[in-house]
Design a protein that fits this description.
- The chain has 205 residues and is mostly helical.
- It has one domain.
- Helix content is 80%, strand content 0%.
- It has eight helices and no strands.
- The longest helix has 44 residues.
- It is globular, with a radius of gyration of 21 Å.
- The termini are far apart.
- 28% of the residues are buried.
Length: 205
Amino acid sequence: MRYGRELKYGLHVIFHPFDGFWDLKREHRGSLSAALTFVTLTIIAMTFEKQFTGFLFNSVRLKDINVVVDILTVGMVYVLWCVANWCLTSLMDGEGKMKDIFIAMGYALIPIILIRFPLILVSKAITAEEGVFYQVFANISYIWTGILVFFGTMVTHQYSFKKTVVTCVGTVLGMAIIMFIGLLFFNVIQQMITFVITIYKEIRF
């Protein structure tokens, strides 16, 4: 089954990022559906972590958990990074298409899935003194993912190390700009709606 092989290929990508990301783009060893599966599993992992992590290592109160917010947060960061990266690399002679970026970034999330799910179970079986191991592996999941995002960007766009650093920094700034413009747009729309409602009420009276 092709979809199963595309999912399994993710293990090759995270341990051999240069060959893995190259084959994702050039040999089509992965797919957008598999990448979105990894994004979905990442959202589930982050949500489960807040709800089921052992109380010694869980600083989130259950009443403060909002699944919808968790889904939107992870999904928004993923989409914003891909869109900002595409906008920037289109101006910097990047070779990756929008689809290539979405696929590469989806596969880059695999370490979070592989590490975070087991950590939920481990957190219920270890003591506070052993918590340092929990924190180490938790940090590794993010560092590993960050490294994969970096190499995924480098290989997808065929950039040098220096240019990839500049691109990643620019992508983060691009995400901030997009969020600012989006918030500004929604604020203007909200004010327009309020204005129209106010005018309607005045006319009605």
